[in-house]
Amino acid sequence: MCPSTESPASEQSGDPLWGVLVGTYLGLLVAPLAVFGAVGLGMDGAGVLYGASVVVFAGAVGLGWLATVHWDRAAIRLGATRVRWLPAAIPVAYALGGFASRSATGTAGVLAFFGGLGAMVVGLVLGVMARTRHTDSVLDSDDIACEFRAGWPAPLRKRLALAVGAFTLVTGACLVVGLLADWFALQLAGQLLLPLGVVSYSSTEERDYTVSPAGLEQRLPVARRLTTWDAFRGYSRTDDALVLHRPRRVDIRFALADLDDPEAVEAALGQYLRAA
């Protein structure tokens, strides 16, 4: 759809899911510290350690939720910067430290390792949610120049599928060998790299896009992503696609076969980008 329309503004009365996840993130990081402190005080009974971790975790969830109630725009401000990915990065050192110290710290080290892994996942979810909330805030009051749905050209997707398949086989083999040989570094590398191929290929699938003065919005199944126009260095048109060029990142492609009106989409993009 490429006549201009205006997206109606919307107001959020609250964001309980964000608050619960912030609290869960804090709980995953704090609970192992509570166990470590209890062990340091000589309280090493299983029931005591379990109770301490549960109480501290529940308290952290509650405090995290209350904090987001008072700072209700924290998610929007976080989503406006790349700092949104910091919550996913911090637990990496936490998990590695717990794993390395497990022989000295025992249960606390094991909990820190798994708590760090869980916090990495929750932190990544928080980053995606923050980016989506920032996108909602920007585009709710912005004019829409064009909306369309497109993916990468089919021949290019087929070539990428072959490359991703080979990459997945290699990383999967690393994971299996790491498990069988009890080689943690290889196992960790396989675990971390294995999803990258699938994620890369999924970016070539058909998505809904919105062109507006604020930038190019991409709608994912459970999220929204806004890329400002200054992140591109222009666009070009090939025999089968419109290509948005990005420095140091993979270009975005729209297959002409997926577009109802390629000329209208190109005209909308030409309002904000120069032809390369």
Explain what the structure shows.
- It is a single chain.
- The protein is α+β, with helices and mostly antiparallel strands.
- 59% of the residues lie in helices and 13% in strands.
- It has 9 helices and 9 strands.
- The strands form 3 sheets. The protein has a 4-stranded antiparallel beta sheet.
- Strand 8 (241-245) and strand 9 (252-255) form a beta hairpin.
- Helix 1 (16-40) runs antiparallel to helix 6 (107-139) and helix 4 runs antiparallel to helix 6.
Summarize the structure.
The protein has 276 residues and is of the alpha+beta class. The chain has helices spanning 16-40, 46-70, 74-79, 86-100, 102-105, 107-139, 154-181, 184-202, 262-270; strands spanning 5-6, 143-144, 146-150, 207-212, 215-219, 224-227, 234-237, 241-245, 252-255.
